[in-house]
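Weekly structure sync, notes
Attendees: PL (lead), two postdocs, one rotation student
Agenda item 3: pending single-chain targets
PL asked that the sequence for the first pending target be pasted directly into the notes so everyone works from the same version. It is reproduced below exactly as submitted, 67 residues in total.
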Amino acid sequence: MARICELCGKRPGVGNNVSHANNKTRRRWKPNLQRVRASVDGGARRILACTRCIRTGKVVKVATRAA
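Predicted structure, written out during the meeting:
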């Protein structure tokens, strides 16, 4: 599964770990993605959304089914 927000397209950033001795190794900064039941095209669907999209209201949550 690609670690990409389905709403804003946020994806992992890349760069280097830099040690005290100035050694450089590649690293990734992963976005904080959550699986959310959201209303998509009139129906409920589970999507991967970053916490910023959830917090700003871009995600319209759907109530879970009663058991």
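Discussion points:
- The domain at 1-67 is CATH 2.30.170.40 (Ribosomal Protein L24e; Chain: T;).
- The longest helix spans residues 51-56.
Action: rotation student to compare against the earlier draft before next sync.
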